[in-house]
Structure formats: C-alpha cells, structure tokens
Design a protein that fits this description.
CATH class: Mainly Beta
Helix content: under 10%
Shape: globular
Oligomer: single chain
Order of helices and strands: EEEEEEEEEEEEEEEEEEEE
CATH topology: Jelly Rolls
Structural class: mainly beta
Strand content: over 45%
Distance between the termini: 21 Å
CATH superfamily: Jelly Rolls
Number of strands: 20
C-alpha cells in the first residue's frame, strides 16, 4: 500500500474578490511540483463564488468535469444547448470531449455559493461532448458509500469518459466503512468535506485528503459524523 497525505492547510489559495478558491492540485497561478495530479485526477477545487458572480463563457476540451454544490446554487449554460440550475444535493458532469464552451454563475443576489469542481483526464480523446445532472438522496449516504459517477450508462448514475468512480458517504461517529476498488490498479482519493475520520494510520479532518493506491481495500473509521468524497481513478497517466 502507498499513501500520500494532503492537509487542508497546504492547499493552494487564491482570492479574486468575487471568487475564493482552494486548490488541492496545481491550478492557475498555484504550482506545486509534488501536487500536479493524483493519477487521472487533475483538479479538485473548493470554490466560494460571491453573490451574483461567476465564470463567464470559456472553453474546455478533453476533460471530464464534475461539479458538486455544497452550499447554494449555480446557473449553467453551455454550447450544447443546456441551461440548468444545480443546487446543493445535486451533481453535474460534462465530458468536454472535442470541445465545448460554458458559463457558471451564482444566481443568488445575497449569498455565496460553495462548490467542489473536479477535473479528470479522459479515457478517450475527442468524443462528442455530453452533459449529465442528477439529484442524490442524502439519507441514503448515512453509513453507506453510494456511487454516483461511473464509466457506464446507468439511470441512477452520471456517465464519465474514464475508468473512474465518484462516490459520497456520510458515516456516523464510530462507524467503519470499507472501500474496495472497482478496478485493479486504481487508486482512491478521500476528501473530507466535513467531519473527521481515520484511515491507514492517518487522522483526517475537514478538507484534508488522503491518496491511497496498491491496496486491495481501504478501511475508513469516522471519529465524528462526517461527509466524504471518494474518488477512484486509474493511477497510470500514459
């Protein structure tokens, strides 16, 4: 088993006024040669977007982009003709593929929006772009690991162009979870949205993260009620 610990306090941070962003990996003006990616996981940004503010129309290509609002809402428009509102309790994904443009704005005039934005390198380049969005049941996350993003079509999951799986969990205090990788040679990146857990000898608190690979399974013990993001990704970057 191999591990890498990313404390919340060592994330990159940018304050643009309208946007406050914490970067788990090198992004924009933040660069750490030891934190460029974790396998196929390229970006994990913890963004706070000011009231009525947002990202104007901009392009993407050949990247899997997943957005998870933690607080508030985000208004989305893209060149595929999609226009939607994503809010707390929902997940959105875009396979940018051969190329798209999109914009994202906080529609609320009096409160901030907090999102997690995830970028994963694609398995196949230049596919036809696609969009997905789903609402999850928070009660189903209690003391369970629920997968919502996967590399296959499924009515209850979002379809990603990579052999990767994204899951959420809300373990109660003292509850033990066991995660078994779905694909051989994949790694697991555990991000603590809220709470505190122990795993493989590490104590992880709010916004800390732990990467684990070369492991058959991973035990996670909640030290208090917690909310976890679990990202399973291929470790090869060829």
């Amino acid at each position: 088993m191999k591990t890498i610990f990313h404390p919340a306090s060592e994330r990159g941070f940018a304050n643009h006024g309208w946007l406050k962003a914490a970067h788990s990996f090198s992004f924009a003006n933040y660069f750490d040669r030891d934190k460029v990616h974790f396998g196929m996981l390229r970006v994990l940004n913890d963004d706070i977007i000011g009231a009525g503010e947002g990202f104007g129309t901009h392009p993407h290509d050949n990247m899997e982009i997943i957005t998870i609002p933690l607080h508030g809402s985000l208004e989305h428009k893209d060149s595929m003709g999609n226009g939607s509102l994503i809010s707390t309790g929902e997940i959105q994904n875009m396979s940018a593929g051969a190329g798209i443009t999109h914009s994202e704005f906080n529609p609320r005039p009096d409160s901030e929006t907090n999102i997690l934005q995830i970028w994963i390198f694609p398995e196949i380049r230049d596919i036809t772009p696609r969009y997905g969005q789903l609402r999850y049941d928070e009660k189903s996350l209690v003391n369970s690991i629920v997968n919502y993003v996967a590399p296959e079509k499924h009515k209850d999951k979002l379809w990603i162009n990579q052999q990767a799986w994204i899951s959420l969990s809300k373990p109660s205090e003292n509850f033990e979870l066991m995660y078994q990788p779905k694909k051989e040679n994949n790694g697991l990146y555990i991000f603590i949205i809220e709470g505190e857990v122990e795993s493989t000898g590490y104590s992880l608190k709010r916004r800390d993260a732990l990467g684990i690979w070369n492991a058959e399974d991973v035990k996670i013990t909640a030290k208090k009620d917690s909310f976890l993001l679990l990202l399973e990704v291929p470790m090869n970057t060829d």
